């Protein structure tokens, strides 16, 4: 696995458990919903493996014709609690500030509902870093489809092959491959299978990724240069 030699022109981030620690609120909301719908609770390990897709993609197979009822239960509990439990992951804010300071275009592509995503970014004071905050429901299809990537990059007019896609899950790597971005995995403990859509670069956490960004310095890639922005 080769390391990049320059910073990209843009970085797309996943949100949950890439920039913020959301496993606690997700686990609570999922299990409140499962119990209300007459299902067995999931363990923490099951949550981490099963929770990847947006609700509009995940809930119909799980709850059938009652999926909209389940969605309402989940959203009600999430809306009442998510901002109180909002926590940035170590180094995430510094990473965003460092990339922004180098002139890298930043955006988010998340399967969290768009209005919740934008409320959390605002609460953390991070909205100013992002040219796009694209959540579930904002594009015609959700991640791993490429439509959210296209929407996130539209304000900057940057081609996907000049972009890092940073996430913690297999669905992020799948989306990166589909869109033609460089897939960057931020995960200390790999409990998912990445063999189908392997990362080109892996770091343990936001602190390690920020260290890499600082080493690469301010050498933003030039789309007219014969050199690529990164190697994979």
Kindly describe this structure.
The protein is α/β, with parallel strands linked by helices and 232 residues long. The protein folds into two domains: 10-21 and 88-216, 3-Layer(aba) Sandwich (Rossmann fold); 23-81. The chain contains nine helices and six strands, in the order E-H-H-H-H-H-E-H-E-H-E-H-E-E-H. It has helices at residues 23-36, 44-50, 55-63, 67-81, 92-101, 114-124, 147-153, 170-179, 206-216, and strands spanning 10-13, 105-113, 132-136, 163-167, 182-186, 201-203. It has a six-stranded parallel β-sheet, sandwiched between helices. Helix 3 crosses helix 4 and helix 5 (92-101) runs parallel beside helix 9 (206-216). The chain is globular and about 55 Å long. 41% of the residues are buried. The model is unreliable at 221-232 (pLDDT under 50).
Q: Please count the helical segments.
A: 9
Number of E strands: 6
Which superfamily, in CATH terms, is the homologous superfamily of the largest domain? Answer: HAD superfamily/HAD-like
> Strand order of the main beta sheet, please?
3-2-1-4-5-6
> What distance lies between the first and last C-alpha atoms, to the nearest angstrom?
7 Å
Low-confidence region ranges: 221-232
């Amino acid at each position: 696995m080769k390391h990049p030699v320059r910073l990209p022109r843009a970085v797309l981030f996943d949100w949950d458990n890439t920039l913020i620690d959301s496993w606690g609120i997700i686990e609570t909301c999922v299990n409140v919903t499962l119990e209300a719908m007459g299902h067995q609770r999931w363990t923490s390990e099951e949550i981490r493996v099963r929770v990847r897709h947006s609700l509009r993609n995940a809930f119909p197979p799980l709850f059938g014709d009652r999926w909209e009822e389940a969605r309402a239960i989940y959203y009600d509990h999430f809306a009442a609690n998510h901002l109180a439990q909002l926590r940035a992951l170590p180094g995430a804010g510094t990473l965003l500030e460092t990339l922004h300071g180098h002139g890298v275009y930043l955006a988010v592509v998340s399967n969290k509902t768009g209005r919740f995503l934008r409320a959390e970014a605002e609460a953390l004071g991070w909205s100013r870093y992002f040219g796009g905050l694209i959540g579930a429901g904002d594009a015609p299809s959700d991640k791993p489809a490429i439509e959210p990537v296209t929407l996130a990059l539209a304000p900057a007019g940057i081609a996907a092959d000049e972009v890092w896609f940073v996430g913690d899950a297999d669905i992020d790597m799948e989306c990166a491959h589909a869109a033609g971005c460089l897939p960057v995995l931020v995960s200390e403990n790999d409990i998912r299978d990445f063999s189908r859509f392997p990362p080109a670069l892996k770091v343990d956490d936001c602190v390690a990724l920020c260290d890499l960004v600082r080493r690469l310095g301010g050498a933003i890639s030039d789309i007219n240069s014969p050199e690529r922005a990164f190697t994979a």
